[in-house]
Amino acid sequence: MRDLFAVIMLSGIYSLIAASLFITMDAADVAFTEAAVGAGVSTLLLLKTLALVDRHESTGPTRPGLAITVVIATGALLAYGTLDMHPFGETHTPSNDHIAAYYLENSIEDTGVPNVVTSILASYRGFDTLGELIVIFTAGIGVIVLLGQTGTSDSEIRPAMRQHLVLRVVSKILIPFIMLFAFYVQFHGEYGPGGGFQAGVIFASAVILYSILFGPEAARSVFSNATTRILAVSGVLLFACTGIVSMLKGKAFLDYSALAEDPVSGQLLGILLVELGVGITVAAVLIRVFLEFDERRWQPDDQRGQS
Amino acid sequence: MAETIVSFIAACLLLLGCLFCVTGAVGMIRFPNFFARVHATSVTDSLGAGLILIGLALLSDSATPVFKLLFILLFTLITAPTAVHALTKAAMHAGSHTASPIEELPASDEGGPSSKH
Amino acid sequence: MILGITIVAILAVMALAIFRAFIGPTLHDRILAVNLFGTKTVLLIAVFAFANDAMDLLDIAVVYALINFISVIGALQYFEERTEVEGRDG
């Protein structure tokens, strides 16, 4: 299949099917993130990229034999490796017996947060989450450095979408509610599926919708380059400084029980701040990445290379 | 007793909603023309979704799922027709302003004669 | 049981939508089919949440309703801009 647009749509559907699979396994947080990121923002960013290149893939590799052999061999090795694993759903596996049982039993006493996924992500395995956040932040830096400040810009409503009056009015009404929903997901993430990553993605989707319909200049008047840069940085700083404050109060890095008099409220405060940091950075990075792509205009082949 | 009546009504609404959705999908497959397909799909889609969501809301025990389902219902009722409206407007501008279907490259021929206009 | 019938019906509609997405002769047919697939997925998640009595999953249905809308608008914008720059052969 050489039509890249069809490939993008199919990959969106694939993400959706993966999200449905996670739902059948009762993994609500993972399904949430997969639906929001894989079927939503990924598809939009890929479409933005596709707008800058040709729509059809040029002639593929003439001898795919080697690639196919490597793929099949790797897949066979991986499948062979899984033969040794415990059957799916068996109760007495090493991961279920020791560490998972500990988390499930002690999570609510240690951290006071009902959603075990959030407590593991933000408290028990806080270092991992800090690392992930820094990876997202680095991706944002990469896009800012590579795509830079150049690009055309026009200061009116994007001409192609000017005719869609109904769409613009409806979206203007909807965007505040989408942002409100993002805040709900952010702060309710301790009691139900949700948390910082998902909330950041939903917030970024609202701004992306605004940018699609009203043009990147309008979106930049709210989320200027400086704003997204400062927001992205402050999210990471919030996370890291929560850890440093814990150190300054005498305990280990990212040990939230030092943040308040009572260890459990310290954990609650720490998890809240950390998830907020994650949400802010994810939203800011995604908005900036999309706006950087959005500013570029597609030009036909004969005009490429000018501006 | 009241519970069985409510579940019965909910079951009826769910079945009716499924019927509308399936009818709309069959219409989307069988109609010869893009605009006919759009009409079949969007009308029955919104109605069927609404009925299914209201049926589910009647089946729930506590108040929170009802609010979430109403939110989904409101959101779907607002956004699905809007998206289809934008799509149809785009299709109309992309093709000529007749009822004939729009062609995509490479030129594929579209079956089904359009009606007299 | 009635929820089971509903799930089967929605899955049938999704299969028909994918079929139309593959064979739809014009581009807009395909976008329509993908939009239908998305709204049916929202319903599927909601019915599934009720069938398994896991009300937390309704949040995912809300998110997906949102994502579906934004994706269709994004795809539409891509084609409109491409058509506008290229002329009629979008």
Provide a concise account of the structure shown.
The complex is a heterotrimer of chains A (307), B (117) and C (90). Chain A is mainly α.
Feature tags:
heterotrimer; A: 307 residues; mainly alpha; 2 domains; 0% strand; globular; C: 90 residues; 84% helix
Topology:
The complex is a heterotrimer of chains A (307), B (117) and C (90).
Chain A: H1 4-24, H2 28-50, H3 65-82, H4 94-111, H5 116-124, H6 126-147, H7 165-188, H8 196-214, H9 216-222, H10 225-248, H11 263-295
Chain B: H1 2-30, H2 34-59, H3 63-94
Chain C: H1 2-23, H2 27-51, H3 58-86
Helix pairs in contact in C: 1-2, 2-3
* Count of discrete domains of chain B: 1
**Biggest beta sheet attributes of chain C:** none
The greatest interface here is: B-C, 50 and 47 residues
The overall average pLDDT of chain B, rounded, is 81
Structural class, from helix and strand content of chain C? mainly alpha
- Strand element count of chain C: 0
Output the number of helix runs of chain B: 3
Euclidean distance between termini CA atoms of chain B: 57 Å
Helix count from the secondary structure assignment of chain C: 3
Helix content of chain B: over 70%
**% residues in beta strands of chain B:** under 5%
CA radius of gyration of chain C is 16 Å
State the shape of chain C.
elongated
Structural class of chain B: mainly alpha
Rounded Rg of chain B? 19 Å
User: What's the pLDDT, averaged over the residues of chain C?
Assistant: 84
Main pleated sheet of chain B:
none
Low-confidence segments of chain C: none
